[in-house]
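Milestone M4 deliverable, item 7.
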Amino acid sequence: MTIFRPCIDLHEGRVKQIVGGSLSDSGAKENFVSNQPAEWYAQKYAEDGLSGGHVIQLGPGNEAAASAALAAYPGGLHLGGGVTPENAQRWLERGASHVIVTSYLFEDRQLSFDRVRAMRDCVGRERLVIDLSCRRTESGYVVATNRWQTLTSAQLGPELLEGLAQHCAEFLVHAADVEGLCHGIDEEVLRILGQHCPVPCTYAGGANALADLDRVAELSAGRVDLTFGSALDLFGGRLVRYSDCVDYNRTRNSP
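Output delivered:
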């Protein structure tokens, strides 16, 4: 059953909403920069009973803010961004319920199942989320790493999803081409996930109306959850009210 999942995106130590395809070493196009610290958002999510959201570190300089968010909502948030076997346990100790990993799993743009198994063995399958954020190419959707700038050889589809699902608890998928644009969700990505994803999954990218929750449920047969970013009033948007998302979840969880 599709629900709303919250997020905290961190860039240069601050909560921001950015245009996903613009993120690079030289900066990013920013839709929103919050005056509130990361822990303010985490506390709000805790108070409203929203679990399974994610904190993403978009580049360096975010460790203190990420740690503060996890401390404000221990056990309530996933943590991603620069996660490796060397630091994963530290993030769990700081309060992350799960760690999210992408770039570490790839060597020379090739998916390494040795690295997948190393991450799984480090934290356990039940606490590992694999980020398969993707971009469209002529041959289909491929996983993008390095802040969505590096296209890998891993194509989003049944072989990849079913193979990796044996090693993780969930997937996180940003449709990087529409991330931060508020121009609508990528329905083809959601169809792929709905047809072939055997574990829970959260989709992000382009959502611009509360009705997108129902549309995601329809496209994915209720197997994929949705997060809102730049469209949400919590992040300066005018298209979706955070309170409506909280109410949406409550109606799904009521007897």
